[in-house]
């Protein structure tokens, strides 16, 4: 959405610059005496002002687009970093669970061996 606004602004600015009123100024009458330079007509001044405004708008739109791109890039980097932290936390939790499972299995095997030894001792009659 933001990019479409920026693009529309750039297109409008380009259209204003390209479609400006380009009238040929009327030839000035020959001055009888040295005179001050003729002032530009009001339509030429309006065209120049419109061109300047369009150029300024295009520059502002380009700066806004650049800032939006930088912000998106920063947000992407932040998301990647958070994903890495979450992945490390998940791996640590899985490692801890595996260690606990291994320890529980070892305790269970030890208890089963003791029970089997007791049963074997009872069966041979050496337990009394």
Describe the structure in your own words.
The chain is an all-alpha fold. It has one domain (2-21, 42-122). It has helices spanning 2-18, 42-124. The protein is rod-shaped. The N and C termini lie far apart (88 Å). The model has no long low-confidence stretch (mean pLDDT 80).
Order of helices and strands: HH
Unreliable sequence segments: none
Sheet/helix structural class = mainly alpha
Mean pLDDT: 80
Which overall shape is indicated by the principal axes computed on the Cα atoms? rod-shaped
Give a short summary of the structure.
The protein has helices spanning 2-18, 42-124. It is mainly α and 128 residues long. α1 runs antiparallel to α2.
Descriptive key words:
128 residues, mainly alpha
Set out the fold topology:
Blueprint: H1 2-18, H2 42-124
Helix pairs in contact: 1-2
